[in-house]
Amino acid sequence: MSEATTTFTFSRTVGAPREVVYAAYMDPQQLIQFWCPEGLHIPIESVIIEPQPGGRFQCDMVFDHNDEVLPGEGFFVSLDPPASFTFREPRVNITGTLSFVEQPDGRTTVTMHQENVPLEYAGPEAVAGFTSVFDRLERHLAILQ
Known about the structure:
Order of helices and strands: EHHEEEEEEEH
Strand content: 35-45%
Helix content: 10-25%
Number of helices: 3
CATH superfamily: START domain
CATH class: Alpha Beta
CATH topology: Alpha-D-Glucose-1,6-Bisphosphate, Chain A, domain 4
CATH architecture: 2-Layer Sandwich
Number of strands: 8
Radius of gyration: 15 Å
Distance between the termini: 50 Å
Number of domains: 1
């Protein structure tokens, strides 16, 4: 029997031009500042970003309180800088697209859309996790401005 899945979408408008926001996702030094929820961190040595179709996108999220590691690995399916990129996580069979839409005021709406998401990965914990990630992204971008 196959596991039930759903789609999951989360958006936030952040205070930076889309080129700046897109670049933050492609730079390991920037990615470790925001890509995990509060209470976790990403060791820089775990980050691999190969921004080309078939290239790896990999990082470990580590719980601050007990050093438990949540490995994350996938590969880029397509890239359309600075508008979007699509990746696939084969371990959990999720395909996700991050899109970056510049607003007239110079801010950027970032949308994470995931398909084939197991139901347990799409509940309130996922919303809380992405809320935390986007809060961290906003703080990081404010430092760059």
